[in-house]
Design brief:
This protein folds into five domains: 235 residues, no CATH class; 217 residues, no CATH class; 123 residues, Immunoglobulin-like, CATH 2.60.40; 107 residues, Immunoglobulin-like; 120 residues, no CATH class. The protein has 17 helices and 56 strands. By secondary structure, the protein is α+β, with helices and mostly antiparallel strands. InterPro entries: Beta-lactam_resp_regulator, Peptidase_M56. Keywords: Membrane, Transmembrane, Transmembrane helix. Pfam families: Peptidase_M56. This is Regulatory protein BlaR1.
């Protein structure tokens, strides 16, 4: 029912705007025809009426710069309001409300939800607003009722039309074809005089008393036998010529179009007038053709009309069939017009009239820019460079926007436990900008945000509404839970929109509008005032306390005043939601991938097959199934020795096909199959790792794994006889293939900050313990393309370079996110593009017992010495640990394939008084941790400690620096803790 109501509302909205636009154009043409009735030819009048007819089927939101409605749209004075929950700093308001948690460390004051008792009306606004209104009550579904009446009426009209048309077709089938005789000769003569390319069929009927023509593509003229026998020959010529004129003008084809439009708009008074006017004018056009071509004189024409009308009682199915006389065109009016010698008559539409009609069509047919419409993907890439855009701003306005953006950035800086953005200086700067540029919507929006944060909700609402009204376009986005319920009053710390400019095929993406401290309204929406151009989303924060799944739009544009961005589905992290069901089409992980819910799928030259799933039990044994609930005796792989199954759940996913040499894995992802949420954000302590690409190890602590999961793989497919060269990690190592030679010319620990082909490396190598660097030369004339992989000693694989051409080039340095001492070898393979595949609804074998909740603590007994250790207590999650003398690292950085630790210079490490411990693991999992130190007896209690970490899909690295010498530390204890929605 909700879908039906929504559809009815949308259709009603379209019909409403199409109705008033068509009525407006019909009224204009009505007045124009009255004023020019004696000087305008019937042909031109008919053309203008056809423009009105086309207007009825023109989309009401077809926006063209030539359209008069596009420039004078009533939407531009419409206020769209919605209830809003405002959040303001609790330090600046006395309102009593519920505190909202913030996970931003810089926000020392919690945000408070406040609902103001104000209502502001902006009659000049056409934007989504931040108004406060009462929550709407459930209303009667008038749209659904009216749509039902409309559809019933349409069905009745269709049924009547079919009935009447079948009667006419029956008359035609029972008539006699004429291929000779006087009438046939006269038909050929008149057709020749009217310069018709083909002759219609002529029939004589005893079943009708009304002459008519029918058939849009195979025209037929039906002549009643009564009229053929009783009218004089010259009168028959007039009747015949009139029907031939209809055929010559394509009136029958236009009649079908008119009929279909009339069926859709049967209820519209303007259509009633238009239908009558079209049929009158159509007869006038045919009358004028006969008089202009001297096929009849006015006196005899009038006599023929009277004689034919006196013999006719049949009502024709106009305009599908066109007769000589009919009730909707009074004989008296037609006779007066025929006898009026002062009228201008034309047998066709002249060139100036055609130009006039086209100009009026360009003005009248376009509609208004739609009020709301989903944004559409687009591209700026053209055949000859970037596609030019009309959007440009002058240097003064750009400088103003850049100044506002700098102000917005202060939202993330603190001074005396308060945001710099919320200080008085920000208001002064923004007011100064608005004094100089009163219509600067971006400054208005930021100032409105400032007033909201400082508790003045009335002024905040006014400024925000003015901003939305002054902006060329407003982008809106809705945040909702999986069950469709909007999230209200939730902070979104930052959204940044890139407003692109292209001039002379040169792309300038530097104009970025940063919106900060956004709050979702009662519909879960935020509204962003922007320029009218092509956009990209540069930055988008998660809603406070939620994870979100954003759709990657790339470049997009808005065809409406209020462009609606795709809804953002959110969920409380690690909450294991079960109140909704996701689909592959909705999931960003699956919608562009090739997938199956069976055990086998084909991708490129390879066939991928699930060999089976092994699930550990508490005693370390395995239950093995095929992924669809059927038991298997064994897997075609060696199962690991599980020693931690009492507190850790394990599932091994085996790919029995293809052979390991036929593919490589770039990325792996597991989803909860019902919700399509990535497993590591679905429940805390769930993750996976793999060193054998045919066996992916899924595991979980605290909670058992979901019963059904989806496996998503980004793979490189290789043919059976591809080359794969193993290259040793040393300078001078080479590989040759098909006339191309590959050689390592540089390989060292760490990486440099810069390099040029002329001057070489800049500075000293950094991150010696966590990264390495290489340069390769490829020579040879053949156009081969290669990929280079690095393989660690524990089996991890990284694709370093996805493609070279062998044209005697010296490569630039490649940074490897792996220390040199961990590299086992390199592999050179053909270049192929990665593709995404997935296995949906993989059923895991059941685990019979729950997990123990008390986890063991990992202990690293360093005994005051520098040591390297690895703990397998949570295997396959191996925790690597290292202790060092001095404050070794200055920071860390994370990349897609790993991390790097930046070392301090030796002279800045203070090894006598400071120490460093580092630990990391390679697994896709999210957990909290607690790190404790046990010191040797006699160690002073004083001494600070700092820590930092980096994480990614590859895993986590954590560094702790102590203001104590390493010799004083006895033991380091690492405890894993579950994450909660408030982390």
């Amino acid at each position: 029912m909700n879908v039906l109501n929504k559809t009815a509302n949308e259709l009603s909205h379209i019909i409403l705007h199409a109705s008033w636009q068509a009525a407006l154009i019909a009224g204009f043409v009505f007045v124009l025809l009255i004023l020019t009735r004696r000087i305008m030819s019937s042909q031109l009048r008919y053309a203008l009426l056809l423009v009105v007819l086309v207007k009825f089927v023109t989309p009401p939101f077809l926006d063209l710069p030539t359209g008069v409605i596009s420039h004078y749209s009533p939407i531009r004075s419409t206020v769209v309001s919605s209830e809003t929950i405002y959040l303001v700093d609790s330090a600046t308001t006395n309102a009593s409300a519920t505190s909202q948690h913030s996970n931003h460390t810089e926000n020392k004051f919690p945000l408070v939800a406040v609902k103001p008792d104000i209502t502001i009306t902006e009659p000049g606004s056409n934007r989504s607003t931040m108004l406060e209104v009462s929550k709407p009550k459930t209303e009667f579904p008038w749209s659904t009722l009216l749509m039902s009446i409309y559809l019933f009426g349409t069905a009745v009209f269709v049924a009547l039309l079919i009935h009447r048309y079948r009667l006419v077709r029956q008359i035609m089938r029972e008539s006699d074809i004429q291929s000779d005789g006087v009438l046939w000769s006269e038909l050929k003569r008149i057709s020749k005089q009217l310069k018709m390319k083909s002759l219609p069929e002529l029939r004589i009927s005893d079943k009708t008393d009304a002459p008519f023509a029918m058939g849009a593509f195979r025209p037929v003229i039906v002549m009643p036998r009564l009229i053929a026998e009783e009218l004089q020959p010259d009168q028959l010529t007039i009747v015949m010529a009139h029907e031939l004129a209809h055929i010559h003008r394509r009136d029958l084809l236009i009649g079908w179009f008119e009929t279909l439009v009339n069926i859709l708009w049967w209820f519209h008074p303007a259509m009633w007038w238009l239908r009558k006017s079209l049929r009158e004018t159509r007869e006038d056009c045919c009358d004028d053709i006969l008089l202009a071509n001297q096929l009849a004189n006015p006196d005899r024409y009038c006599e023929t009309l009277i004689d034919a009308a006196s013999r006719q009682s049949t009502k024709l199915a106009e305009p599908l069939v066109l007769g000589f006389v009919h009730r909707e065109h009074p004989i008296a009016r037609r006779i007066r017009r025929l006898m009026d010698g002062s009228l201008f008559r034309a047998d066709r539409l002249r060139f100036p009239a055609i130009i006039l009609t086209l100009l009026l069509a360009l003005i009248m047919l376009p509609g208004m820019r739609p009020e709301r419409q989903s944004v559409t993907k687009t591209t700026l890439e053209g055949l000859f460079g970037w596609t030019n855009l009309s959007f440009q701003i002058d240097a003064s306005e750009e400088a103003t926007i850049n100044e506002c953006r700098k102000i917005a950035q202060t939202y993330f800086s603190m001074s005396s436990y308060k945001r710099i953005f919320s200080q008085l200086e920000t208001r002064v700067r923004l007011e100064a900008i608005l004094d100089e540029h009163p219509k600067c919507f971006y400054a208005q929006y930021l100032l409105g945000t400032w007033y909201r944060l400082n508790g003045d909700l009335e002024l905040s609402t006014q400024l925000l509404n003015e901003s939305l009204a002054n902006a060329p376009v407003v982008l809106s986005q809705r945040y909702r839970l999986g069950n469709g319920k909007p999230i209200r009053g939730v902070e979104i710390s930052e959204i940044e929109i890139e407003c692109n400019r292209v001039q002379n095929h040169s792309l300038d993406p530097s104009l970025n509008l940063k919106f900060v401290g956004l709050i979702t309204d009662s519909k879960g929406m935020v509204h962003l005032p922007v320029y009218d151009t092509v956009y990209r989303i540069s930055t988008q924060s998660y809603p406070e306390g939620y994870y979100a799944e954003f759709k990657n739009l790339g470049w997009f544009k808005s065809n409406s005043l209020n462009g609606e961005l795709p809804d953002v589905m959110v969920w409380r992290p690690w909450s294991q939601p079960r109140n909704f069901t996701g689909t592959a089409a909705e999931s960003k992980w699956l919608n562009n991938a090739r997938g199956t819910d069976t055990r086998e799928l084909t991708s490129g030259p390879n066939s991928y097959k699930l060999g089976g799933i092994a699930r550990s039990q508490a005693d370390g044994t395995f239950t093995i199934e095929n992924g669809k609930g059927k038991s298997l005796p064994s897997l075609q792989t060696e199962l690991p020795d599980i020693k931690n199954a009492k507190f850790m759940d394990h599932a091994l996913v085996n790919l029995s096909e293809p052979a390991p040499s036929r593919f490589e894995i770039a990325e792996v992802q597991f989803l909860d199959s019902q919700t399509k949420i990535p497993l590591q954000s679905f429940q805390s302590g769930a993750g996976f790792t793999w060193t054998d690409k045919s066996n992916i190890h899924l595991f979980s602590i605290w909670d058992t794994l979901p019963n059904i999961v989806d496996l998503v793989l980004k793979v490189y497919n290789y043919d059976e006889n591809i080359f794969r060269y193993k290259i040793q990690p040393k300078v001078g190592a080479t590989a040759q293939h098909a006339g191309a030679s590959f050689k390592i010319t540089h390989l060292t620990a760490g990486n440099h900050s810069g390099w040029s082909s002329r001057d070489g490396f800049y500075g000293e190598a950094q991150s010696l313990s966590s990264t390495s660097e290489m340069i390769v030369d490829i020579t040879g004339s053949k156009q081969s393309r290669f990929s280079l992989w690095v393989v660690s000693k524990d089996g991890r694989r990284q694709n370093l370079k996805e493609g070279w051409f062998s044209i005697s080039v010296g490569s630039s340095p490649i940074r490897i996110m792996m220390p040199l001492h961990e590299i086992d070898h390199f592999e050179l393979l053909p270049y192929v593009k990665p593709v995404s595949i997935y296995f949906e609804k993989i059923q895991l074998p059941a685990r019979k017992t729950p997990l123990e909740q008390q986890l063991p603590v990992i202990e690293f007994p360093i005994g005051g010495t520098a040591r390297n250790m690895t703990s397998d207590l949570f295997s396959p999650l191996l925790v690597n640990f290292e202790s060092q003398r001095g404050n070794v690292f200055s920071g860390c950085g994370s990349r897609m394939r790993g991390f790097e630790l930046r070392e301090r210079p030796e002279e800045e490490r203070s090894p006598e008084t400071k120490s460093t411990v580092m630990w990391n693991y390679w697994a896709n999992i999210k957990m909290n941790h607690q790190l404790d130190f046990t010191f040797k007896s006699g160690t002073a209690k004083k001494g600070g400690r700092s820590s930092y970490n980096c994480s990614g899909a590859w895993g986590v690295v954590n560094v702790a620096s102590l203001n104590k010498p390493l010799e004083s530390i006895d033991t380091v204890r690492l405890q894993f803790l579950p994450k909660t929605a408030d982390d």
